[in-house]
Amino acid sequence: MIGTELQINLNGNSTEPVGRAHTNAINNPNPQLAAGRCRGMRRALVIGAVVLLVFLAGCASLPVDDGDIEADTPDTDDSADTDESSDDTDEPRDVDGELAVHHIDVGQADATLLITPAGETILIDSGDWRQGGEGVIEYHEAHDIDRIDHLVATHGHADHIGGHDAIIEWAETEGDGIGLAYDSGVAHTSQTYDRYLDAVEEYDVELLIVEEGDDLPVEGGVDGHVLNPPEGDSGTDLHDNSVSLMIEFGEFRYVTTGDSETAAEERMVDSWDNELDADVYQAGHHGSSTSSTTPFLDAVAPKIAIISSAYDSQYGHPHDEVLTAFADRDIETYWTGVHGDIVVTVTGEGEIDVTTSDEFSTDADDLLSEKPADDQESLAPLTAKTQHSSTIPA
Questions:
Q1: 85-392 domain in CATH 3.30.70.3040?
Q2: Dihedral, CA atoms, 120, 125, 126, 128, nearest 10 degrees?
Q3: For residues 167 and 123, is the Cβ–Cβ distance under 8 A?
Q4: How far apart are CA 45 and CA 12, in angstroms?
Q5: Cβ–Cβ contacts within 10 Å for residue 79, how many?
Q6: Quick one: pLDDT at residue 375?
Q7: Mean pLDDT across the stretch 39-54?
Q8: Nearest residue to 150 (alpha-carbon basis) of 184, 185, 115
Q9: Cα–Cα dist 56/363, whole Å
Q10: What is the pLDDT of residue 1?
């Protein structure tokens, strides 16, 4: 299951599709259904003075009080698809080549680029709106990448999709285009989000809404499993519905959760039980104490953690509690605030190599000591501008 295609009503009565997305639910006149969220994909968004309505395929035929439809879920014992998914998790496939996960230093924001052995690319988030995608585009060009096969918006906040519109324009006009785009289905009323959807429409990008149990159609021996948002009506909170992914490549497993916080982490632990364990974990919400909760860390049990936030974060990221938790668990910790760009390269046998643009300790206690105090004025990170590499055996 890949995701649900959507259609966007831009003028209140037109049913022209955005990109190549379609649904038969756009014409449903029921006001209660129109006000709700169906299967993670019903949403309302104000674009200027215009209401933007997004509906999921099949929702029109559902009862008003129950927006759920059948889907692959990890906690249904009699689901054949779930059993197949579990088999895939328990018995990794033999794979060749290397998977590279680039955590691009975009300051107090997120942008992660994955490159599969087949050369397929997955960009998860695109940095802050102030940067307008410039640094992320330059990073792609520096690595001779002109196409994004999978463009993921974990959620609608401007520090995650700030470059989406510019990146779509760049890929479609100067590069080889966008393959598929993915969204949580929960809208945000901001100019940044408006520009993102405008770019999707202008450049005819296929936009899919994903929920738990969906899989990204990735090649090269890489599997991308959606852990969050949950299926059905899960409310309108952007963080609770943040797209979270488990990336598998042979023996290697990587978890990234966007800005998922305590409630979402609790649900993922309940739903996925012992299937969350991973080698590398990108800390939720930029290392905030609202994420990386004890039950979630117990379930993921990572060897390595990656934190994406500014050195002088106005929010105090990463929070002391999170760094302390990582230190207590002896988790090798990387932080873009001091390490710069962080590239994790892994073989299918699970051998992990980490390269950073700036050298600094990976001991979470050292990072805690280096981190500016909440009342301390902004300082430049005390790091050497050199390449640093470490290797963790399988």
A1: no
A2: -170
A3: yes
A4: 12
A5: 17
A6: 53
A7: 32
A8: 115
A9: 45
A10: 53
Do 54 and 34 touch, CB atoms closer than 8 A?
no
Burial state string for 297-330 with b = 16 or more CB within 10 A and e = fewer than 16: bebbebebbbbbbbbbbeebbbbeebbebbbeee
Instruction: Work out the burial of residue 22: count CB atoms within 10 Å of its CB; fewer than 13 is exposed, 13-18 middle, 19 or more buried.
Output: middle
Sign of the Cα torsion 22, 26, 28, 32 reads positive
Please report the pLDDT score of residue 26 as a whole number: 21
**380, two tokens:** 């430049």
Determine if the peptide bond prior to 74 is cis (ω within 30°): no
Q: Hey, is 173 helix, strand or coil?
A: helix
How many CB atoms are located within 10 Å of the residue 158 CB? 20
pTM of the prediction?
0.77
pLDDT of residue 155: 94
Q: How far is CA 63 from the centre of its chain?
A: 31
Query: How far is the C-alpha of 307 from the C-alpha of 337, rounded, in Å?
Result: 8
Q: How confident is the model over 175-203, as pLDDT tens digits? A: 999 999 999 999 999 999 999 999 999 99
Q: Which residues of 359-374 are buried (b: 16+ CB within 10 A; e: fewer)?
A: bbebbbeebbebbeee
- No. of H helices and E strands in the chain? 11, 19
User: What is the Cα–Cα distance from 159 to 149, expressed in whole angstroms?
Assistant: 21
Greater confidence (57 vs 141) lies with 141
As a whole number of Å, the CA-based R_g of the chain is 20
Angle at the Cα of 288 from the Cα atoms of 190 and 229, rounded to 5 degrees: 60
The residue whose two tokens read 């196409």 is: 147
Lowest mean pLDDT among 80-84, 123-127, 334-338: 80-84
Q: Where in the chain is the domain with CATH 3.60.15.10?
A: 85-392
SS3 89: helix
* Residue 163 near residue 192, CB atoms below 8 Å: no
